Amino acid sequence: MTHATLTPDLTATLDALHTSAFPAMLVRLIQRQVAFDCALLLGMGQRPVYLYDNLEHRRALLFDRYLTSHFGQDPFMQALAAGLPAGVWTLAQVSQGKLDPDYQQRFYQATGWQEEVGLILPIHAGLTLVLFLGRLGKRHPLSQGERVKLEELFPLVHALCRQHWPQAMPLMATSTTSADGATVKAAVELAMDTVGGDQLTPRERQVARLLLQGLDTEAIATALGIGSGTVKNHRKHLYGKLRLGSRAELFSFFLNHLITAPGDGEPTA
């Protein structure tokens, strides 16, 4: 890695600090040094918070399933929960050759990722970022030289992230595009119809939608023509499936789903 090849991309990334363009510029800075096909950036608090991606293949499947429940099977997430320190880590390192067969089928075979590297980026006590870099089958495996480049680049990436996210946990990604009222309304309606993906039953999704609209238990029972006890059971089940503990967490979950929900014409499976 030379200063001549790094400087233009570093300048663009510095210019993007504290703007919605920063994650994309940061990923481009890395990809210009070591080639990857895919990138996904998450903030880690009680559950993953979506911040950025440049995915093109099976994107809806990844978000509908991964952020809803499958992140718990991710070897990077498991290693992070067990105390994985800052640095550049490969899938082989964190899985130690014991990748969950179900997760391998649902994630790696479904998305086509053949190799994965994770950058663990602690920002402060309440926030650790995880930047996943993936390669599809058409690329060669990560070489030792490429691994060294990533390790050399890591301190710079870490410092840039600490500058961009100095204090609070980011609640959601920031859209870089504007939309008119009709487009926003359509996006919200689509997100409400699909929140929870295939993890929820149709009735649980109805209850989730009404909770998001601010209705209490009795109002939901009246709207659906069921008992309040049944509403409470549906709420308990949907919270359990989505790993949520409160209505506030449901709102946070929905906001992130709103950003990652597929647009018109994008397949959901």
Q: Looking at CATH, which topology of the largest domain would you report?
A: Beta-Lactamase
Q: Which regions contain 5 or more consecutive residues with pLDDT less than 50?
A: 171-179, 263-269
Spatial arrangement of strands, main beta sheet: 2-1-5-4-3
From the alpha carbons, calculate the radius of gyration and give it in angstroms: 20 Å
Q: Tell me, what is the CATH class of the largest domain?
A: Alpha Beta
Number of structurally distinct domains: 2
CATH architecture of the largest domain: 2-Layer Sandwich
Mean pLDDT rating: 80
Please describe the biggest sheet, giving its number of strands, its sense, and whether it closes into a barrel: 5 strands, antiparallel
How many helices? The count is 12
Question: How would you describe the overall organization of this protein?
Answer:
The protein has helices at residues 3-15, 22-31, 59-66, 75-81, 91-95, 101-111, 144-164, 181-194, 202-212, 217-224, 228-242, 247-260, and strands spanning 38-44, 48-53, 87-90, 113-124, 127-136. The protein is of the alpha+beta class and 269 residues long. Strand 1 and strand 2 (48-53) form a beta hairpin.
Sum this structure up briefly.
Helices cover 51% and strands 14% of the residues.
